[in-house]
User: What shape does this take?
Amino acid sequence: MPITILTESELRQCVALDSESIAAVEEAFVALAEGRAVTPPIMRIDIAAHHGEVDVKSAYVEGLDSFAIKVASGFFDNPKRGLPSGSGLMLLWSATVGFPQAALFDNGYLTHVRTGAAGAIAARYLARQEIETVGVIGSGTQARYQVLTLREVRDFRRVRVYSPNPDHLSRYVAEMEEALGLPVEAADGPEAVVRGCDLLVTTTPSTEPIVRAEWLHPGLHITAMGSDSEHKQELEPEVLAAADRLVCDLKSQCFRLGEHHHAREAGLLAPDAQVDELGEIAAGRVPGRTSDSEITLCDLTGVGIQDTAIALLAYQKASALGLGMQLET
Amino acid sequence: MPITILTESELRQCVALDSESIAAVEEAFVALAEGRAVTPPIMRIDIAAHHGEVDVKSAYVEGLDSFAIKVASGFFDNPKRGLPSGSGLMLLWSATVGFPQAALFDNGYLTHVRTGAAGAIAARYLARQEIETVGVIGSGTQARYQVLTLREVRDFRRVRVYSPNPDHLSRYVAEMEEALGLPVEAADGPEAVVRGCDLLVTTTPSTEPIVRAEWLHPGLHITAMGSDSEHKQELEPEVLAAADRLVCDLKSQCFRLGEHHHAREAGLLAPDAQVDELGEIAAGRVPGRTSDSEITLCDLTGVGIQDTAIALLAYQKASALGLGMQLET
Assistant: This one.
């Protein structure tokens, strides 16, 4: 059977940082909460000699005709050679006969979209309705996608951002002011960002805590995106202890890889502490934010259902538009 | 960077059931034994609603510039619809910068070659030098590939085969007599195969033991290929207890998925029973067969290093031949 081959530029014609992408990812989170998804543990290939790591994620969502297998790489010496640190692709498989249907050579684009979508879903249910300032720690691609996707669920007036790299920081400010048409302010450290925002997104590859609990304030929502492996960490464990509400994308992952993992290991989060999954909120099984003064926190490690949702959306839209090459294998 | 797209017919021009494929796979087993390989656990996606399973395997071998990520599916209702039960593809990734280099749309062909190669390596070190009859239980693609690849390491005079499906059995006999130019005899049951052969290959999707210990005889070598998941089993546990020498491809897999798993669970194989890995023998760390009367057994579940070895060989040969399409992603 032929396989559809799609390139990044074609996929960018099909899928955007918009309400449709968010809806597809949200539906998948609901399926996860309702026990309608099979999510095998992440496969991780470490290539220490080249300071690289490759993750393979997948998930089957009952009722969908296809599921994705997604490969994402991070090679952290690449920028020194003038290369992007990350790359990736997605494969779409038939869930009924097991044949490959499409290879989505997206260079990581779809991962950025589905990750942005998860942040928007977290904000939809956990941020205050009225917010003024979005705080961002980090200045990479996802620091852009998170803020751009947030516009779909919240109005905000400004962005305050910090990055330890001054070049990256000034580029972020210039590019995002233009993209958003809003003021984007460079902060002189993470404290000024956290203290001065209503919604904080952390999106760094940090292996040391950046955000301190003493900077938190009533009504703040935090989406912590960066930690997706055992050694990464953006929040000191006290931040989780101080939050009124803890949410994550998938407990089995976050308790092993995410910020929850560090807080539990430090003994600052009891094994039976209440943690809800994002899909449980989206499915209406547990409430989202319940007051304007709560401090809420969502720990995102990235789940295979997001990849399946976005890959299937991309494939359906590409098919409708007649995009892609049909390869007879 | 462009990605090389290769189809099954192109890959068949590059890689065959020959000594070169066997050598590439054997080198990878040596690297595994010498601790030069990173082999993450298999990722498994079960799709119970469609009687399907999908395995993702990968391994990085130190010193190689690339590594493979391989997807293989088995959907066991497909034959009823006139479709092959299995499919697959391999991705080749740069181990230095983490970008995808090639997509090998082989429809499972390379998996068949690297699996045949592992059987040949097992026979090289574990079968008697002089053998007359190869016994085969099973009549699928791998039942063919195993025997065809064996010719690279042993001369034999005939094949004796059993399959419970008479149509499959007669087709196997006809096709393999022509392919081998040797007599291929259909047996009326598994007992006649086991009692009447010097080297036995079991290659079925059975979930019930087929081979009984009482049929074993001095000098027999068994390569058990079929069991690669928890519920599959071809040998009764007493077969492992009766063998003089136990070998497998990867202990951490075989103790969880292969024939060893069932024998250990049945209490017929002590947790500290001596089991060697095929790569340890290939590396010269432990001996192969040490007498003509030993009963030897090799339990193969399929390891990601085999995929990396064969995918890299295919890519190198395709590049040398100028095959494949260069896709700008």
Summary: Chain A touches chain B through 48 residues (CB under 8 Å). Chain A has a mean pLDDT of 95. The longest strand of chain A covers residues 52-61. Residues 15 and 314 of chain A are 6 Å apart (CA to CA).
